[in-house]
Each structure stands twice: as C-alpha cells, then as structure tokens.
Amino acid sequence: MTTTVDPTAPGAAFDAFLPGALATSRAQRPWTPQDGALPALYLSHGAPPLFDDGDWMDQLHAWARRMPKPKSILIISAHWESAPLSLTSPFANTPLVYDFGGFARRYFEMQYGTPDASELGRLVASVFPDVETVHQHQSRGLDHGAWVPLKVMYPLGDVPVLQLSIPTHDPAKLLDLGRRLRPLREEGVMIIGSGFMTHGLPFLTRDAMMGKIPGWSADFDAWAQDALARGDVDTLMNYLKRAPGLPYSHPTVEHFVPAFITLGAASNPEAPVTTTIEGYMWGLSKRSFQVA
Predict the structure, then answer these.
(1) What pLDDT was estimated at residue 2?
(2) d(CA 174, CA 26)
(3) Distance in angstroms (rounded) separating the CA atoms of residues 174 and 254
(4) Cys bridge to 128: 70, 132, 170, 189, which one at CB 3.0-4.6 A?
C-alpha cells in the first residue's frame, strides 16, 4: 500500500527534508581544538513557517554542515528580553516554549530535546566579572527563535544548547556583550544571534504574502547588506537615524539587535561579513551572516 503525503499539510516540507538531514548530521565531523574558533552567526529564524519552506531549510542545514559540529551552542533570541542576564535551563530535554499563535497544532507538538548543558552554563558564567551575575533558570526552555532554526540545522538534537537573554537594545552594550562572549568560540561554542533582518509584521499586505517585496523591507535590507559588506559598524549602530524603511521594517527592534552581539563576538567586528542566506519570506528579509 502506497502512502501519499499532502504537500500542503503543515510541516510537510520538514517531513520531506528530515531523513536526508538526519543522515548528513550523523556524518558531520565534530569540532576539535585544532579547528580554532568557531564562527559567530546571525540568522533570521523564520518561526513555524520555516518548516514549510524546503529551500530555506536546505540553506540553513547546508550552512551548518560547512562548519564542524559545535561542542555546544549559545543562542540569543529576539524573543527573550530580560535583564539581568539570564540563561535557560541547563537540564536535558527541558520542555520548549511555544511562544507563537495562529499556527497549526502540528507546530505546538514539535519537540527538540537537547543534552545537558551545565558545562556550557559554567563557561558562560566564567566570562563575566564576579560583580555581574548570570541568572540560571531551572525550568525555562528554548523559545521558537532558538529551537525552530536549530531543529533544522542540527536535527539530531545532539548538541547542548543554552539561550541567553537580551538585556538591552543599546548597540554599544550589545557589542560589548558579544566581546565578552568571544572567548567561548575557542572552546567550541557556536554563538548565534537569532532575529529577522526585517520584521514589519503589522505592515504586511496580501501582495507581500504573495511575493511582492515591500519597499521598506527591500530598502532596509539593502542598507544593512551594504554596511555589513563594508564592516561599517558605526553606521549599523546608528540604524535608528540612518536606516531607510524604519519604523516599518522594525516597529520594535528586538529582531535586529541580536546582530550586534554577533558582531561583537567577531575577532574583528569591523571586518566585512559573509552573507550566507538572502531573499525574502512574506516580504521579510531572511538575510543571515557569519563572522570569523
């Protein structure tokens, strides 16, 4: 008896993607100290619709495979703004946070169990001065800005993961936060800022959902791409005054500011970055990049 799969069903693209991704993830070489520092990443995380976009999943998974599999991952998601600095639970298989609404039940039933991350928690705490406490939650799991892209990049769930909160929107302070995290890259920790290069959800129209790119989204993306390609951190830091398309592209800024943590974690924050993914989903720029 032949079983057919409805390609329009929620998550059907993920179901088609998963068998091959599991095989390539099993074969991926793990990071060793001889590899040196892992890159730091900024990615547009996609939310549940990522699981319906086969091309985008292929791009994310291929990006992950171009690097050694990290020893652990520290991810900073737009969806957890909290001061003082806080970390998610280090325990294995902590339940996920389903912080979204209006999507099919399938996405609220997805799981992403990861190993114990207590060692990573100790490493993160070690890079901050004694006067600055990093609060370790005992029950908060990964939110969708973390588990959705990681389920695609590392589908086996075999890499310990912690999520770090965003304590401020101040670009200078976030650059400094990334600078403090930078030594972790030498320990096999992948640092990821997870946001969305444009995120003007209130201003999306039917035309945008059907593929027409809003001018505000295209203008902001082109501005950011140019500044990143030139390593112009000063221009990026002054985005509230200089970036075209505001406030439509970012009516709130939490999806853009994780980029400053990524840049701060770079060996040279003013070096040109490598764009790994570009294009649009629903008119929103999914530009993603890495720094060395």
Answers:
(1) 37
(2) 34
(3) 12
(4) 132
* Res 3: pLDDT: 40
Are 277 and 243 contacting, i.e. CB atoms less than 8 angstroms apart? no
Across 208-231, b (16+ Cβ under 10 Å) vs e yields: beeeebbebbbbbbebbbebbeeb
Query: How does 132-169 read in b/e, with b if 16+ C-beta sit within 10 Å?
Result: eebebbeebbbbbbbbbbbbbbbbebebbbbbbbbbee
Write the single-letter amino acid at 3: T
Share of residues in the chain with pLDDT > 70 (%): 97
Cβ 80 vs Cβ 144: under 8 Å:
no
Q: Beginning with the edge strand found earlier in the chain, give each strand of the sheet holding 189-195 in spatial order.
A: 161-163, 72-77, 189-195, 40-44, 288-291, 274-277
Give residues with Cβ within 8 angstroms of 211, minimum separation 6: 283
State how far the Cα of 150 lies from the Cα of 56, in Å rounded to an integer.
13
Q: What is the pLDDT of residues 162-190, one digit of tens each?
A: 999 999 999 999 999 999 999 999 999 99
Residue 159's nearest CA partner among 71, 241, 277 is 71
- Which pLDDT belongs to residue 274? 87
Q: What is the pLDDT of residue 6?
A: 65
User: Do 49 and 137 form a contact (C-beta atoms < 8 A)?
Assistant: no
Looking up tokens 């840049």, which residue turns up? Answer: 263
Q: If you average pLDDT over every residue of the chain, what do you get?
A: 95
Reported as a pLDDT band with limits 50, 70 and 90, residue 7 is: low
22 Cβ neighbours under 8 A, 6+ residues apart: 155, 156
Angstrom distance (rounded) from CA 189 to CA 197: 23
pLDDT-based confidence at 209, cuts 50/70/90? Answer: confident
